[in-house]
């Protein structure tokens, strides 16, 4: 069934990609890659279902393991992008998923009320949520009276550390994709760039040069590399962080302004030099195309800045020293670490954070455990 779902997704990739681009403005090529990525998870969990060592409300991320584990699903779709969720439901029926197994609820004006109805329902045994830490805490309070099982993938503040012995070209390549994928609106986007003082100017020059090559515009234009932010509140948040950096002495060497000629939610990709850890972007998740570069002198300093946040979803660092790689990977207080890479997500690996970035894991065999219950049966056969 899940294999069929993956197949019909790929068969409908052109239509789904257009829908994704129409909904949130992302470039069409990025939308196509996202569909292939989602289909790969369906295939992986199809294999895990036959090795599987209630109902729920959740984002689409955990839909695959939940169904693989035999659960029915209620997906509360985001108010900003409901159509892709509805399309996914239609494809599930075409793939042979029985009616009532995968359900989609949409809401715009009363999202909070709709969520409360779902979380308080006695039919819902498990809640999985991807979103802000603030909303995650609300859901915890709503589900705790009934002791419902809960998993959360919340906000992050991912450090991106470049040590003095790093491969600078590789670090720049990864920084571009890790920061600006989805115009900086993914939960694992790099947020705090920490560059060793010995390579700071070299990295900054190469990084700025690459960002200058971006082309913003209509996602259906094949030449477009980056699209808009999701709504005006996101634009205001990004602009506020840039203004704060300027006021605190940061040098905005690229971007730092809205692009109304492209439409209201476009913000120019922004690079800030001479940044420091006291600026807003280094303390609160940006969720936008802003990269502030902070220089550091010692490994201990970089780790201290990285770990001071209450968030702990992902972190990235670059070094050729193998001993340092193991040492720093262990010391970073995050759930996922990319060592000399910005790619950390795969169907077979656990995805999730620690501290106020949530708990529970998506992907891997551990994800199936979130949707199953261990029962011990002791059976005695009389003589």
TrEMBL record:
All copies of domain Aldehyde dehydrogenase, residue ranges: 1-59, 61-377
Domain of life: Eukaryota
Pathway as given in its UniProt record: Amino-acid degradation; 4-aminobutanoate degradation
Molecular function as annotated in GO: succinate-semialdehyde dehydrogenase (NAD+) activity
GO biological process: gamma-aminobutyric acid catabolic process
List of catalytic residues: 153
GO CC list: cytoplasm
Sorted UniProt keywords: Oxidoreductase
Stated family: Belongs to the aldehyde dehydrogenase family.
Protein's UniProt name: Aldehyde dehydrogenase domain-containing protein
């Amino acid at each position: 069934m899940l294999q069929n779902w993956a197949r019909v997704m790929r068969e409908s990739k052109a239509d789904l990609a257009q829908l994704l681009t129409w909904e949130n403005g992302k470039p069409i090529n990025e939308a196509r890659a996202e569909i292939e990525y989602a289909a790969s998870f369906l295939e992986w969990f199809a294999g895990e279902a036959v090795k599987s060592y209630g109902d729920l409300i959740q984002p689409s991320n955990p839909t695959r393991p939940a169904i693989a584990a035999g659960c029915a699903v209620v997906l509360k779709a985001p108010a900003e992008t409901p159509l892709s969720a509805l399309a996914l439901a239609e494809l599930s029926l075409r793939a042979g998923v029985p009616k009532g197994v995968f359900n989609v609820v949409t809401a715009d004006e009363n999202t909070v009320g709709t969520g409360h109805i779902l979380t308080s329902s006695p039919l819902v045994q498990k809640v999985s949520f991807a979103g802000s830490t603030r909303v995650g805490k609300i859901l915890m309070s709503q589900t705790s009276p009934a002791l419902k099982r809960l998993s959360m993938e919340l906000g992050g503040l991912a450090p991106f550390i470049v040590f003095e012995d790093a491969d600078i070209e590789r670090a720049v390549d990864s920084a571009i994709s890790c920061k600006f994928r989805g115009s900086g609106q993914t939960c694992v986007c790099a947020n705090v760039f920490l560059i060793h003082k010995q390579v700071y100017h070299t990295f900054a020059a190469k990084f700025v040069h690459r960002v200058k090559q971006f082309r913003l515009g209509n996602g259906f234009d094949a030449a477009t590399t980056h699209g808009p932010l999701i709504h005006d509140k996101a634009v205001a948040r990004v602009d506020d962080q840039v203004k704060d950096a300027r006021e605190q002495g940061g040098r905005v060497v690229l971007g730092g302004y809205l692009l109304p000629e492209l439409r209201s939610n476009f913000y120019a990709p922004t690079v800030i030099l001479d940044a420091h850890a006291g600026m807003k972007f280094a303390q609160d998740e940006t969720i936008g195309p802003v990269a502030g570069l902070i220089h550091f002198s010692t490994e201990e300093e970089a780790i201290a800045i990285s770990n001071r946040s209450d968030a702990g979803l992902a972190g990235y660092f670059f070094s050729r020293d193998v001993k340092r790689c193991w040492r720093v990977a262990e010391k970073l207080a995050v759930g996922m670490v990319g060592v000399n890479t910005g790619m950390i997500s795969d169907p077979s690996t656990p995805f999730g954070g620690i501290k106020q970035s949530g708990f529970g894991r998506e992907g891997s065999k551990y994800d199936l455990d979130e949707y199953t219950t261990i029962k011990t049966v002791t059976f005695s056969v009389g003589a």
